[in-house]
Amino acid sequence: MQDKIKILGDQHIGQEIKQFLARWDEVVCQLKIQNIAELCAADVCFFDASGEMYGFMAYQKMWEAYREYFRDGLKVFRRDVVIQADTTQAFVHCYSKIDNENGVATPGITWCRSTIGLRKSDTKWKIIHQHISVPVDILTHRSKPITFSS
Got the DSSP string for 49-92? Predict the structure, then answer.
């Protein structure tokens, strides 16, 4: 399910970011490493529950490690998307997951909290920061699935 995207700040730039996200989703689902490189800054950093990495070479290795999990027919799904944008920087935060493009949920694929930071250099937007996490119950140290009422 894709729901309405809320844009805060410059509405025109927000539309640019929506177009960027559409391109990002395409290259990620097809795991086109070269295209991923073109959409990221050389100093990109990535944080998730298991660790962190700095620089595009480390980021590229992470995507290569996911290759065995990717297959045809994938789509990025987002909910509660907020884009905060101005002329040189933008932030996107939402819930997201990559799953079957037909919308039939794969057991074990959960929603994550996602944040993407972007910077405009020359005329192109590039990802400079990405954070993906799953909530964890502090007492049990187990993940807490994110659920939606609709």
Answer: TTEEEESHHHHHHHHHHTGGG--SSEEEEEEEEEEEE-SSEEEE
Mean pLDDT, range 42-63, rounded to an integer: 84
Classify residue 119 by burial, with Cβ atoms within 10 Å: 0-12, 13-18, 19+: middle
C-alpha count within 13 angstroms, C-beta hemisphere, residue 128: 11
CB-CB contact of 9 with 87 (8 Å): no
Banded model confidence at residue 68, pLDDT cuts 50, 70, 90: confident
Instruction: Name the strand (E) or helix (H) holding 37.
Output: helix 33-38
Whole-structure pTM value: 0.86
DSSP 132: E
Question: What's the CA angle centered on 78, arms 11 and 37, to 5 degrees?
Answer: 80
Question: What is the C-alpha separation between 110 and 96, in angstroms, rounded?
Answer: 9
Radius of gyration of the chain (CA): 15
Which two tokens mark 140?
Answer: 């049990």
